[in-house]
Specification:
The chain is α+β, with helices and mostly antiparallel strands. The chain folds into three domains: 275 residues, GROEL, domain 1, CATH 1.10.560; 108 residues, TCP-1-like chaperonin intermediate domain (GROEL, domain 2, 2-Layer Sandwich), CATH 3.30.260.10; 144 residues, GroEL (3-Layer(bba) Sandwich), CATH 3.50.7. It is built from 17 helices and 23 strands. It starts with a strand and ends in a 20-residue tail after the last strand. The site of adenosine-5'-diphosphate has 23 residues, from helix 4, helix 6 and helix 14.
Length: 549
């Protein structure tokens, strides 16, 4: 009997060992978990945020300041914690940066909701209020945001530096150099869609890394760096003005699917058979030579004999190249990926000023560079240790996201908590115009936003409450709305003058994702888990469904 009716109420029979939390218990637990997750990343926010060292089961060490990475490596089990991890991932995908912010904000929204629940406000009222607040906040954000001219490199540079500023990737000089590399990369791959809007496919910027050297050695490559060696020692290691063929086929003799048996009865027959095979491979290589290719990249394998012929023809070949790299090569060199050698002609070939195998920290890599107006480029990250290059990679992908966001949307806002204080102020005034209990939720939403300047000032060793009060006072005047936390001076400061700019999209996405997460979590009033720790740890199953207050 899977279900039963008892006095008109539904009764569920849970499997042995399952746990169940109902109504307020479920809400209380979930809110506590959400806040705990937010607390775990809080200290990582901003340029003065601390790093976390995470050690996996296998003993791998990650040192990071990145919210999404911290949560991912923590391997959280609780479903609510997983929702928090998911919003960090969404933020990463949509805006490329702001992952710590979104989690902290969601935690704070939950805290506010918890307080309202204690006061007897119904979850659906809170949810409604949060929705109204998020809409309003987004409207205000769009109104107050400033226009960024995507050709104004000084704005892009500031956005890049602020995004990079929160991770420890090197000296100011190194950071300036890296942000230039990112901007150059984004500008190189940006494109216009059918409606004439600028867009950036972030995947077209390949971020390759290798421990060794220093972060300052990180380089922009106007082409693609392939983490593979040249197939055969007899091939040239370097070709200038390369004409590149991209093949999605094996330079091998296809072994038939059918179990064919070839009977060879004499040495002559054996000889003839091998010669035939050799001729076929030679034909293949000749087709490549005839198309005038000097470099070959193939997604599949290259037979030893074919390698030999390629080497003899002076062709540099690399095999088993990843599909994603092949696509990037096509975009960078302006080549077409060919699936049959009979199709290959000179016009399918791409161009690179230089294709060269180089030994980097003991490993061979193939550089395809000096492409003409490449639509895919590479940032090659170097750094003292694996942890350093890993964190630099996380930082640069954030910066790529931030710069792309601002170029696509053409709008930016002030960082350092200035925007959050402004939003909170406007939301509070707005809340007063809303009748009903929703206004309580809108006020809590405003309070939650102020967590950002609070945490930023705390991380700088300032008194969070004093700073917030100063900021609120300053924001009362129209000129004061540019004030945020100047974490390097341990005071409040003009974010406009300091150039602390952030893409509008980071803030807008963070507000939407955080409030959505809070809404999802608040809506749950019944948690059934079949992963209980045995019968004794389980809440009594089979109880009539409880009511949320
Ligand atoms: P997230 O993962 O959310 O991007 P970060 O650690 O990158 O977190 O910190 C971003 C926060 O730090 C933003 O609120 C941003 O405005 C603030 N911030 C960054 N640079 C500065 C700065 N120079 N002065 C003040 N605040 C800054
Ligand atoms: Mg950031």
């Amino acid at each position: 009997m899977p279900e039963n009716q008892l006095g008109g109420q539904q009764v569920l029979y849970l499997p042995e060992g399952a746990t169940r939390l109902l109504g307020r218990d479920a809400q209380r637990t979930n809110i506590a978990v959400g806040i705990a997750v937010a607390n775990a990343v809080k200290s990582a926010l901003g340029p003065k945020g601390m790093d976390k060292m995470l050690v996996s089961d296998l003993g791998d060490i990650t040192i990071t300041n990145d919210g999404a990475t911290i949560l991912e490596e923590m391997n959280v089990e609780h479903p609510v914690a997983k929702i928090m991890v998911d919003i960090a991932k969404t933020q990463d995908k949509e805006a490329g940066d702001g992952t710590t912010t979104v989690v902290i904000l969601a935690g704070e929204l939950l805290r506010g909701a918890g307080e309202l629940l204690e006061q007897g406000v119904h979850p659906s009222t809170i949810i409604k209020g949060y929705k109204i607040a998020a809409e309003k906040a987004s409207g205000v954000l769009n109104e107050t945001s400033k226009k960024a001219d995507s050709t104004d490199s000084s704005i892009l540079q500031k956005i890049a530096l602020v995004s990079m500023g929160s991770k420890n990737v090197g000296s100011d000089e190194t950071k300036a150099q890296l942000s230039k590399i990112v901007i150059k990369s984004v500008e190189q791959v940006m494109d216009k869609d059918a409606r004439g809007n600028t867009y950036i496919d972030r995947d077209l910027i390949k971020v390759e890394k290798k421990a060794g050297g220093t972060v300052g050695d990180t380089a922009f490559i106007s082409g693609v760096l392939i983490d593979k060696e040249v197939a055969h020692p007899g091939m040239p290691k370097s070709i200038k003005n390369a004409k590149i063929a991209l093949l999605d086929l094996a330079l091998e003799i296809e072994k038939t699917e059918v179990d064919a048996k070839i009977e060879i009865t004499s040495p002559e027959q054996m000889q003839a058979f091998l010669q035939q095979e050799e001729r076929m491979l030679k034909d293949m290589v000749e087709k490549i030579s005839k198309a005038k290719a000097t470099v070959v990249f193939t997604q599949k394998g290259i037979d030893d004999v074919a390698q030999h012929f390629l080497a003899k023809s002076g062709i540099l070949a690399v095999r088993r190249v990843k599909k994603s790299d092949m696509e990037k090569l096509a975009k960078a060199a302006g080549a077409r990926i060919v699936t049959s050698l009979d199709d290959l002609s000179e016009k399918d070939l791409g161009y690179a000023g230089l294709v060269e195998e180089r030994k980097i920290s003991g490993e061979q890599m193939t550089f395809v560079e000096d492409c003409k107006n490449p639509k895919s480029v590479t940032i090659f990250i170097r750094g003292g240790t694996q942890q350093v290059v890993d964190e630099a990679e996380r930082s640069l992908t954030d910066v790529i996201g931030a710069v792309s966001s601002v170029i696509e949307d053409g709008k930016f806002v002030l960082g350092g908590g200035a925007t959050e204080v402004d939003l909170a102020d406007k939301l509070r005034s707005y809340a007063n115009t809303i009748g009903g209990r929703e206004q309580l939720a809108i006020q809590k939403f405003a309070d939650a936003l102020e967590i950002i300047p609070k945490v930023l000032s705390e991380s700088a060793g300032m008194d969070a409450i004093d700073t917030l009060v100063q900021l609120r006072n300053k924001h009362r005047s129209k000129e004061g709305t540019v004030y945020g936390v100047d974490i390097f001076k341990n005071a409040i400061g003009d974010m406009n003058r300091l150039g602390v700019y952030e893409p509008l999209r980071i803030k807008e996405q963070a507000i939407y994702s955080a409030s959505e997460a809070a809404e999802i979590i608040l809506r749950i009033d019944d948690m059934i888990s079949s992963k209980g720790k045995g019968p004794s740890g389980g809440a009594p199953g089979g109880m009539p469904g409880g009511e949320a207050d």
